[in-house]
Amino acid sequence: DKGNHRHFMAKEIYEQPETVSHTLSHYVDMSSDKVALREALPFDFATLKRLTISACGTASYAGIVAKYWFERYARLPVDVDVASEFRYREPPLEQGGLSLFISQSGETADTLAALRYCAGQGQHIASLLNSPESTMARESQVVFPTLCGPEIGVASTKAFTAQLTALASLAVAAGVARGTISAQQEAELVHSLTTLPTAISAALALEGQVEDIAKRLSKAKDVLYLGRGQMYPIAMEGALKLKELSYIHAEAYPAGELKHGPIALVDELMPVIVVAPSDELMAKTLSNMQEVAARGGKIILITDEVGKQTVGEGVAEVLVLPKVASFVAPILATIPVQLLAYHTASFMGTDVDQPRNLAKSVTVE
Ligand code: M6R
């Protein structure tokens, strides 16, 4: 049932204040602002030397954001790779390490093969899944649920933000166990997660402005997405969503890589979507953005009030998100990239819920 929405995807985008809140209530105790994992862990975060994450598509971008979080807050080294590469590389893995697999369906062939490889290497096997009855669930020692309900649209939306919410909570839990964050920091980080549902609702209200931008995006042949640090995987997610839904060619680059090649693509016809809510790296990204603007690129900046004040004039469009703690900013910044792809595609009249050539669950390699 699509409710009042034209597509399942729209319904799923709009469910996110509730789904994020629901996921969060599984992982944290909102009354004390502490993480509270319910799953019995077959490993100990305190003594872990390395975390290896494998996943495909959108789930792999959740893994990249998680790498920033685990490294920053838990000082835990993280390797993350798409499962289709990881499985054939056969990387050496230290006995007793932790391997984590992220999947909405729990059935993706490459991710499952990566899981089986890691199990064979004596790794602890953990999965973050939306389908508790899946093959990956059966083959994992511990399953962390995303709890966002069935996702019908082929393009992943609410599963991604649920994955991020769970991963953020796990990174805080790891930080607490490893003594790399204080009780005070734990409370601040958990509190910042609890601000998300309201902030996401506010971001969804950008829809009218997004529709205007989408009309123009629908005429583009190529679109560039830029982000730095934890915003880089959100740029990748934005580019993937646009490709999947509208069939417009889109690429994401880490903002600092721009001058190493891709800036050659920029001309007056090139929309460039810059994902830069205010954080420690925003100023760097904005200076890369000015280089694009100087070459005529049409900038669409996703930021917050602080970012908007910093850029001043000269940017074609600014989508202003509510200000949240930088820890949770990638989760919030996902909303406008989803809306941009959705509205560009629905404006073009493509089959949003069932894009050509794609399957919801990729069970063959
Ligand atoms: O079910 P999974 O999470 O394992 O699926 C992984 C990818 O196939 C999936 O995220 C795909 O990239 C989506 N179509 C993205 O919107």
From TrEMBL:
Lineage: Bacteria, Pseudomonadati, Pseudomonadota, Alphaproteobacteria, Hyphomicrobiales
Chief location category: cytoplasm
Catalytic activity annotation: D-fructose 6-phosphate + L-glutamine = D-glucosamine 6-phosphate + L-glutamate
Class of the enzyme per the UniProt entry, highest EC level: transferase
GO cellular component, one term: cytosol
Protein name: Glutamine--fructose-6-phosphate aminotransferase [isomerizing]
The keyword Transferase is annotated on this UniProt entry: yes
Function comment: Catalyzes the first step in hexosamine metabolism, converting fructose-6P into glucosamine-6P using glutamine as a nitrogen source.
Species this protein is from: Devosia insulae DS-56
Domain SIS: start-end pairs: 41-180, 213-355
Subcellular locations according to the entry: Cytoplasm
Active-site residues annotated for this sequence: K360 (for fru-6p isomerization activity)
